[in-house]
């Protein structure tokens, strides 16, 4: 994604609001992608709850990080960022119950 941004858009100035949004999106996406991917080897007590947690985290990461990245690229307000955050929270709560 950073290659795309540098090709088609002006570089983000370090410390700017857009750069912080971009950094937040990348970090959240990386953390939750690792949890979803490495969670395959986890042996939870309740596998269905764990699967629901992974789906919620995946959906939340797509909505939250994707919304932040779309806001950086387009400059528009993206209305589904809070829904992605709620999915991430629900995913972590479900993971704690699994």
Strand pairing plus helix content: what structural class? mainly alpha
Number of helices: 4
Please tally the β strands and state the result: 0
The average pLDDT score comes to: 82
Which regions contain 5 or more consecutive residues with pLDDT less than 50?
none
**What is the element string, with H for helices and E for strands?**
HHHH
Largest sheet: none
Name the shape in a single word.
Answer: elongated
- Please report the distance between the alpha carbons of the first and last residues: 33 Å
Q: Specify Rg, calculated over alpha carbons.
A: 15 Å
Strand content: under 5%
* Share of residues in helices: over 70%
Tell me what the structure shows.
This protein is mostly helical and 98 residues long. It is built from 4 helices and no strands. It has helices at residues 2-8, 17-38, 47-74, 81-97. The longest helix has 28 residues, at 47-74.
Topology:
Layout: H1 2-8, H2 17-38, H3 47-74, H4 81-97
Helix pairs in contact: 2-3, 3-4
């Amino acid at each position: 994604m950073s290659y795309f941004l540098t090709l088609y858009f002006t570089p983000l100035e370090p410390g700017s609001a857009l750069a912080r949004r971009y950094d937040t999106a990348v970090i959240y996406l990386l953390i939750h992608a690792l949890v979803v991917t490495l969670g395959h080897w986890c042996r939870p007590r309740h596998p269905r709850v764990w699967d629901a947690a992974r789906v919620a985290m995946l959906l939340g990461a797509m909505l939250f990080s994707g919304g932040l990245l779309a806001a950086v690229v387009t400059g528009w307000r993206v209305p589904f960022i809070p829904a992605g955050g709620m999915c991430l929270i629900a995913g972590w709560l479900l993971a704690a119950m699994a």
